[in-house]
Amino acid sequence: MALSVQLQTGTLTLHLDPPLSSYQADDLFGFAQRRNPKRAFLFVSKVLGRHIPVAPSRMRAVMDALAARIPADLPGPIVVIGMAETAISLGAGVQQALSRTRPDSLYLCTTRHPLPAPISLEFKEEHSHATQQVLHYPQALAHQQLLQEARSLVLVDDEASTGQTFANLVTALQDQGKDQFERIIVTTLTDWSAGQAAARLGSRATQVALLAGQWQWQANQAPPLEMPAVDVVGTGAWQARCAHDWGRLGVQTHTLPVNAEQLGVQPHEHVLVLGTGEFVWPPFLLAESLEQMGISVDFSATTRSPIALGHSIQRSYALQDNYGQGIANFLYNVDPSVYDRIFLCTETPAALLDADLLAALQATVVEFYP
């Protein structure tokens, strides 16, 4: 099956493999024009709550479906690594699903907001708008031991096109002496690499996805769109606290640090819960908790990913990042008029949030760690 879409700077053509799951292409993603000359197109996920608001139950279903494709016989312990920023929630959800039967699993996420703890390794995501990523090792002794003894590594991202980012991460792990893994599972919603993302990691690696295929990009004569300066790694004006970690330093169980009932949402209200940047997993758990109370809820998040209007991106807000890095952030496809209440969730102090965005959304700030 072939799909083709005309973007501002060229044509993207997809050749889809026979279905790997019940999910079809239209279930998982749409398309948009990146403001990034290194890769001009974007698969806009419909199920990750990043660029398109989505019901938490739909997000949870895709996390569970992807986790179900991971082999059940992996030797343990298992380390799951989610890739910032898009796959932080996806990786956490995959690990949480695995933990129902595998209590020997640990979740870590990469980050562009290092904590006041030693940076264990750095690696690159060459095609990204923000190429630098870092990974912390756990600080808790039990988690350190689990990482030291881990025999399986599950790498989670929204898609794989070449597998270069995964290869860069594994090489960095090897350089740090973390090369004891007997099995490596490349885990993505979509695999555009024709299996090469796993193949380049060697015979111990296998690949699982909900959808697979290949893409071809044919540029036209239009000049590439200007990309804002968002390739920044660091702490900015604010630095996360190790005591409030939700994944950057490793977790085995996931907890919601706020009480959904205290928000005072009424049963008839339609609510939007927004994460900010990398801080998406605890806000997702909040959105899910509200949904389980019978509330109509959507979830989405701000991002540093610069995308042009058109196709799957119909609305856009530009805002200042709330980590004090002095870079542009964005919010896509949010129409405030369709929600009774909007909760903007933050791990940073509320004073660092963009005041113009708060006014435009008429949002209520939820500080998770006041």
TrEMBL record:
InterPro entries according to UniProt: PRTase-like, PRTase_2, PRTase_dom, TRSP_dom, UCP020967
Signal peptide interval: none
CDD domains the record matches: PRTases_typeI
Residue ranges of domain Orotate phosphoribosyltransferase-like in the record: 28-213
Pfam families per UniProt: PRTase_2, TRSP
Domain TRSP: from-to ranges: 262-351
Name of protein: TRSP domain C terminus to PRTase_2
Organism: Thiothrix eikelboomii
Lineage: Bacteria, Pseudomonadati, Pseudomonadota, Gammaproteobacteria, Thiotrichales
